[in-house]
Amino acid sequence: MKRAIPCCIVFVLFVWMLAACNRSGQMNGAKEIGYTNAKYHFSLMIPKAWEGKYEISEEDNRVVFSNPFNKSSGGRLFVIDVWTKSKWLEEGEELIKLIHITKVGETDDAVFTFSTPTDVQYSLEDEKRKSEYLQLSKDVEAIQSSFKLN
Q: Is the dihedral of CA 51, 36, 82, 63 positive or negative?
C-alpha cells in the first residue's frame, strides 16, 4: 500500500508532462502557423487549417485578417488596431460598449485591440462561401488568446 501512492503520483506527473508536451507541440508544430507583425511587434498563432483561406492587409494603424473568398461581402474575420494611449483613453471605454472590441495588449505608448465584425461578412447566396467563413470564424477566439507583444 505504501508503494502504491508514490507510483500513482509518478503516473499522474507523467500524464501531466505528456499533456504539456502535446500542447506545446501544437503551438509550434503541425497544427498552427506563427504570424509575426514586424511593424507593430506582435505575434499570433493561426490554425494550419486557415492556410490559403485568409489574407492580411495593413490599413493605417490596423492589421486586417480577412477571407478573400468572401471579399465581395466584406470577408473580415478580425482586426487588430494599434491606438495611441491618448486616443484610447478618449474613445476606448465607449467603443467597448458599442462594438466587439477587446484590449489585448499595451506598451508605454500604444494600446492594442482585437475586434470582430458587427455585421455579416460572408455571401448569403453562396452556401460554400458562407460555410467556409463560419468555419474560420470559430477559431477567432483562440487566435485572440494567442496574441503576444514581442
A: negative
Report the SS3 class of residue 38.
coil
Characterize 61-80 residue by residue with b for buried, 16 or more Cβ atoms within 10 angstroms of its Cβ, and e for exposed: eebbbbbebbeebbbbbbbb
H or E stretch including 148?
strand 148-149
Whether pTM > 0.85 for this model: the answer is: no
Measured CA to CA, the distance from residue 92 to residue 95 in angstroms comes to: 5
Backbone angles phi, psi at 108, to 5 degrees: -60, -35
- The rounded distance, in Å, linking the Cα atoms of 76 and 54 is 9
Cα–Cα distance measured from residue 135 to residue 132, given in angstroms and rounded to the nearest whole number:
5
Q: Is the dihedral of CA 46, 51, 54, 59 positive or negative?
A: positive
Least confident among 9-18, 29-38, 39-48, 93-102: 9-18
| Selected residue with higher pLDDT from 91 and 7 | 91
Q: Per-residue pLDDT averaged across 66-71, rounded? A: 96
Task: Answer for the pair 78, 116: CB distance below 8 angstroms, yes or no.
Answer: yes
